Amino acid sequence: MEFKIEYRPSFALATASLEANESVVAESGAMVSMSENINIQTSSRQGGGGFLKAVKRATFAGESFFLNTYTASGGPGEVTLAPTLPGDITTIPMTGSPVIVQSTSYLASSQGINIDSKWGGFKTFFGGEGFFMIKATGQGEMAVNSFGAIHELELNGPYIVDTGHIVAFEETLGFKVKRVGSWKSTFFSGEGLVCLFEGQGKLWIQSRNPGAFGKAIGSKLPPREN
Amino acid sequence: MEINLVSQPDYAMAEVDLAADEQIVVESGSMAAMSSNIEVKTEAKGGIWSSVKRVAGGEGFFINTYTAEGAPGQIFLAPGHPGDIRHFKLSGEELMIQSGSYIASSPEVELDTKWGGAKTFFGGEGLFMLRASGPGDVLFGSFGAVHEVDVNGHYSVDTGHIVAFESGLSFKVRKVGGLKSLFLSGEGLICDFSGQGKLYLQTRKPASFVHWLNQFRPVKSSND
């Protein structure tokens, strides 16, 4: 399975080329198009009803994290994938070292990669921002997307990032989520949560914060029922 | 007329140069700038335009005709969303264009909204497929980049990502049963194309973007 990324950096599209019986796993809703011989299976990987329900309550719109497995049957095939927001897609080679990915940044991954949404560390990232962190382990390739551009950093020492700008980071990095300002400003404005990284490892950030953009526009739209 | 596409691929505009008294038909709202001698008429012409109807949901499909009066003129066209524009020259074949993607066409191009398959694509989203027949020029735009596919056999597409396709392609729209989670917008409509022809896709889907934005709207309080 190979990922090809086109139309970078603003409206990137990922094409997964599959050999016969090969699969690609992707976030539900990401599929743009596919050849006729692709079979689809939906699952909430490692989710389990209990966890996902808890996540549903805590996130803004109850967006559950579902994964689809696309398999080419009887011959080679392709699936094209895209995220919701304008921005880029990049691939992260997975060589055994786990990578933590922000849930809305996860796009797709090869079969050998395990996606764990029950990962224990996720709770520290909550603050009403409407996303959570998942853990990717295994070997293969993972495609992640960004709102805006993707900026890769090689950390060596302490570094602070606004949580809304986190795309992914290697688990070799120690991290601690802190609030800046009062709890009220943290919960109601969604601002004020930063992540302090320590140690060494790669960090991928996005140049725009989806929550900030969403709030800027959404707050000016007519109210919704629920 | 001469058409030049500028500022591609993310914020494309069409620069159209009209000869004296030449006309161009444009979807209302798409004019960004124009020479001072260009006149606008919004009218329902007989025949062709009698088939243009207000689409359920309130968003009509309104057409303006721009004429370069007495001298050559220039007009810049830009669609609503960020993305690209494509210029298609019709000569005998027909092009199906998603209504929200249509930008402009030369006056001799016929636009038909009432053809048999027009409404099947979008499950009540208020979109439909326009059938354009030439000869003449057509301009259409995308939300995101335009991804071209040369279909030769079979190919399946999420309907929200369809911009346009050549009429030589047969199509069948189906619901992706039982996999509601597949599509964030909840629609779950896939179009299976077969045959030979060009298919234009957009790499972002307006319905997904709107659905994503919904979570940020204020919640109605009981006092409203």
Task: Please name the defining characteristics of this protein.
heterodimer; A: Double-stranded beta-helix; four-stranded antiparallel beta sheet; 3 helices; 18 strands; B: 224 residues; mainly beta; seven-stranded antiparallel beta sheet; six-stranded antiparallel beta sheet; 1 helix; 46% strand; globular
What does this structure look like?
The complex is a heterodimer of chains A (226) and B (224). In chain A, 12% of the residues lie in helices and 47% in strands. Chain A has helices at 48-58, 183-189, 210-218, and strands at 2-6, 13-18, 23-27, 31-35, 38-43, 67-72, 77-81, 89-95, 99-102, 106-110, 113-116, 133-145, 150-156, 159-162, 166-170, 174-179, 193-198, 200-206. In chain A, strands 3, 5, 6, 8, 9, 10, 11, 12, 13, 15 and 18 form an eleven-stranded antiparallel β-sheet that branches. A four-stranded antiparallel β-sheet of chain A has the order 1-2-7-4, with no helix packed on it. Mean pLDDT of chain A is 84; it is low at 45-63. In chain B, strands 9, 11, 12, 14, 15, 16 and 17 form a seven-stranded antiparallel β-sheet that branches. Chain A binds chain B through residues 6-7, 10-13, 28-29, 31-36, 38, 40, 42, 60-61, 63-64, 66, 68, 80, 82, 84-86, 130, 214-215, 217-219, 221-226, and chain B through 9-10, 82-83, 144-145, 147, 149, 153-158, 161, 176, 179, 181-184, 192, 201, 203-205, 208-209, 211-221, 224.
